[in-house]
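hey can u check if this looks right to u? its 258 residues, i copy pasted from the old doc so theres a chance i mangled smth
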Amino acid sequence: MKLALGAAVACALVAGCMNDPSYFPGPASLEVDGKGMEAKQTLSLFFRTPSASEQSSLDNLSSQRGYPVPWLREDRVHIELRYTITNLDDTEASFLLNVDGASEFARYDEDAVAAAFVAADMDAPSPRGLFQVRPPAQALAPQQVLQGAILEDDFREMELDLDAMGRWMAPNFPAVLLYRSDAGGAQTAATNAVEYATTPPDLIRPALWEITPRFNSTQHMRCDFLVRVRDDEGRLWENGDAQFMPAPTTYTPTITKM
């Protein structure tokens, strides 16, 4: 795994052909001892700032649309996260792997959501990220290794949900996180009609710029992760470019006591 991540660092720092994937390894392993304390890390993806002409075009498009159009577009930046989970214990174990994240406009942080419930004198809900990996039906055996991926379609769903909550204040954030907008069927259509009703038609959504895996387990376990990015428009950072460093607003749900 270390060799693979080392090679990935080189890939991320060397520019390739347009839309060749770039790889961003997690800064370190997420390791937990099974005593309740989760491990989490935030990985910022490296993009460049727009040039003067690009910024002018972006401003013009924003003016035409009537809302800020993102520099990093969900339909032109494609993200995948690959993970490797290792049971380091001598007994079987289960795990929880959630992913929070941020676009250039909004950040979703489970801790901030929990704090909002505490401030409203209510019990915080069970942890739920923008995405929650479905664990296998069977617990991991001692020393077992599990590999998996959070796919580009999953990240598009995260980006849709975060934008609906963070910029357009979708009224029922648990439903936004719980239901897949692309699941199909009458119930999905009805849910989408309510939860995404505040978003403008043909909305240009922002891609995630920051990714925060959060890992916990019932025993001593480790999670390594690697983020793969395909960039349609050549906006990944290269040496000599100014790095894109937005300041997104942390999403806080509106909580009403029953």
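Residues 2-250 form one domain.
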